[in-house]
Amino acid sequence: MKFFAIVLSLIPLVLTNSAAAATPWVVDADTARGRIDAGALVLDARSTPSFMLGHVDGAVRVTWQEFSRSKGPHHGRLRSRSTLEKKLREKGVSSALDVIVVGDPKKGWGEEGRIVWMLRSLGHERAMLVDGGHAALARAGVKIARGKSKVPAAGDFEASRAGAFSADRDRVRDAIGDPKVVIVDTRERREYDGKTPYGESRGGHVPGARHVHFSELLDDDGKLLPRRKLESKLTELGISRDTTVIAYCTGGIRSAHFTAALRQNGYDALNYAGSMWEWADSDPATYPLETD
Question: Which residue, among 150, 130, 148, has the nearest Cα to 35 in the 3D structure?
Fold first, then answer.
């Protein structure tokens, strides 16, 4: 009897872990509203003016910069695990609580994808972004408030891993020429061709990288393309579910959103957080760039 009691006691834990593992990276506005009504934490990654003009009631504003290293060649890389854990707890993040991340996919840089990618990389399997962003949530009838962000109750988030869903500089270098890996540059075409509008030390793209701006996976409403259209676009890039995708941009923001979109659709995608700020500042002989 004692054995069966132990087994029964473990069932809720198994179900909870299974549910967490199955949590999507991207949810529609109606699903997000249901989770918010059930007590999910909302993190808003939009600009301060946008947040002040209207945000989900109780939402906490965040920026990707506060979780990243100070300005310089490694600006895109995440801060230390202990620092991230502390900062996320201050934002109200708890391990067992759903985290709904809101952005402005039509005007933003994919910041909501960066926050979700970061949380997932640290082991938070209940983090997800809203398809269509804040505008979609507002249309779904979520209660909207104005003004400053409220100070949340401290969370208890514990980072259980570091580096999942990520590729570092050497992983990218080793992937050049590997037929099983597709390197994708998610910046603007001008950047891919060699322009350096954001302070990169060198211009160009990683040799062999395919180009697609991260927003090309979105429709006019800022929602992900239907699965069939998205798969068709990825096929054109040589991406299949048998390949590994490594995405980069300038500082790992746009590429994080791209990574989240691919993960949502079952692809093996990794984000290079250091991206071009780091790569371009490295030894050109070891970390080359090319232009078309």
Answer: 130
| Together in a domain, 137 and 50 | yes
Domains in the chain, number: 2
DSSP string, 224-271: BPPHHHHHHHHHHTT--TTSEEEEE-SSSSHHHHHHHHHHHTT-EEEE
- Tell whether the torsion through CA atoms of 133, 270, 182 and 277 is positive or negative: positive
Structure tokens at 164: 């999942």
Mark whether 116 and 176 lie in a shared domain.
no
Residue 255 CB neighbours (<10 A): 33
- The backbone torsions φ and ψ at residue 107, rounded to the nearest 5 degrees and listed phi first, read -115, -15
d(CA 219, CA 132): 9
CA distance 126 to 272: 22
Question: Tell me, what DSSP letter sits at residue 284?
Answer: T
**Residue written as token pair 């949340």:** 152
Residue 292 lies in a domain: no
Domain of 209? 169-280
Q: Tell me whether residue 291 is in a domain.
A: no
Amino acid at 69: R
Per residue in 193-223, pLDDT tens?
A: 999 999 999 999 999 999 999 999 999 999 9
- How is residue 70 written in tokens? 């100070």
Alpha-carbon dihedral sign for residues 89, 91, 96, 102? negative
Q: Which helix (H) or strand (E) holds 115?
A: helix 111-121
Q: pTM, whole model, 2 decimals?
A: 0.91
Q: Is residue 210 part of a domain?
A: yes
> Which residue reads 């997800």 in tokens?
128
* Residue 190 is assigned to a structural domain of this protein: yes
pLDDT in tens, 224-261: 999 999 999 999 999 999 999 999 999 999 999 999 99
Is residue 173 very low, low, confident or very high in pLDDT (cuts 50, 70, 90)? Answer: very high
